[in-house]
Design a protein that fits this description.
9 helices
Length: 285
């Protein structure tokens, strides 16, 4: 596929460039983005740690073993030719917000097999008294996300009954959203010349059986999310805080008449909500 060939070389080169960096960077919202009462693009309260495994790289709150709560999970799929290192800043940002991120190491993630393996890994770790994750993984709240080919994989994994919400970022075309059973936030880049916004909108239009939102980030190209994720940090964090943590302020960014992203024309060039998304309230009991 042409989109795969275009993406392979730049992502592989970027991974090599980023491999020299060992600092745990944090993502911030775009400078011209209005700051809500809670800035979801700001660093979270948790120091973070990384564990690189054969199939899965884990990003998680460093002191999770001493945590007084269970932490929800996000499974991640890379773009073609990419590895978790390419998206390190975004994945660390989520970990700093209290999520456990299970990032598939594969550069060919479309089938979602390695993403599901991340759930299996954490299920085992959660039951292992010798693990730092023992009884600290919230397996009742799991989201799926990814970029490009990994965005398509997030749609594929959205059919898994263990998944509670999906967030495909500029997803490639090899997925069928009809099998997804959970709310979806589909993100596109206004200037994306690899996965054109129209391709992402096609997924949105097909998702008439689930609450679905389409968000097109103003000025973003296909690689805006890699390295410093910039404008992608805040909405992705808010989406998962809403669906996996029950954060009511985050939920109001997407649902109800005061929909935060709907009013933020500095960040978004296009925001759409289907009828099922429009029917959901800004707050839940």
């Amino acid at each position: 596929m042409l989109w795969r060939r275009k993406l392979l070389v730049p992502l592989a080169a970027l991974a090599l460039a980023l491999s020299a960096s060992t600092g745990a960077g944090t993502a911030v919202a775009a400078p011209d983005t209005p700051v809500a009462a809670t800035d979801f693009g700001a660093p979270g309260p948790y120091a973070t740690a990384v564990e690189v495994g054969a199939i899965t790289t884990l990003y998680y709150p460093r002191d999770i073993a001493d945590s007084d709560r269970r932490h929800p999970v996000i499974v991640w799929g890379n773009g073609t030719g990419g590895v978790p290192l390419v998206y390190r800043e975004l994945l660390l940002h989520w970990a700093g917000q209290g999520f456990i991120v299970a990032a598939a190491n594969t550069p060919q993630s479309n089938l979602g097999i390695s993403m599901r393996a991340g759930i299996d890994l954490l299920t085992g770790r959660n039951a292992d008294p010798g693990s730092v994750f023992f009884d600290r993984v919230d397996l009742e709240h799991i989201g799926a996300s990814g970029h490009s080919q990994g965005g398509a994989a997030a749609i594929v994994v959205g059919a898994d009954p263990r998944i509670d919400a999906i967030l495909p970022i500029q997803p490639g075309p090899l997925a069928n959203i009809n099998a997804v059973h959970v709310p979806a936030l589909l993100l596109a880049g206004q200037q994306d010349s690899i996965v054109f916004p129209a391709l992402v909108r096609a997924f949105y239009h097909a998702a008439d059986h689930i609450p679905a939102l389409y968000g097109e980030l103003r000025g973003a190209d296909h690689f805006t999310v890699v390295g410093d994720p910039g404008p992608f940090a805040a909405p992705t964090t808010a989406w998962f805080r809403a669906h996996l943590m029950g954060d009511q302020e985050a939920r109001a960014q997407f649902f109800g008449p005061g929909c935060g992203i709907c009013a933020d024309t500095a960040t978004w060039s296009d925001v759409r909500r289907n009828s099922l998304a429009l029917s959901l309230p800004a707050t839940t009991p």
